[in-house]
Amino acid sequence: MHSRGGKNTMKYNLEGKIFQSISNTDNGEVSSDTLFHYHQDGEIVTAEYFGGRIVKGHLIAKVLATGQLDMRYHHINTDGQIMLGKCLSTPELLPDGGLKFKEQWQWLSGDRSSGYSEIEEIDSV
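Below the sequence we write its predicted structure tokens.
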């Protein structure tokens, strides 16, 4: 997937930010009960996530020149399965100055299906 003309060069720092899922397709396991705790070191982004059907998960991503995140993730769900996937996350600045990510993802385990989700920045606790 390519951004429109590659002109989006949004800069952001995800260090210490917390995100919550606001939507997901039915084949996904992330829900509004899932929280993502992000860290960033230059172009490298990591996060731990948990909640809902996710017992514990991790992701690692590279910030692309477009500002998008090229991401790989893995987690253990409440059924005890290890799930793997990849995701391309596109940032959007919200009116309140927070961030939203629009995510095109695909399972690399299980049925290898694809989906779409959105996460939004929430206030840190």
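Strands lie at 18-24, 35-41, 44-51, 54-63, 69-77, 82-93, 99-107, 114-122.
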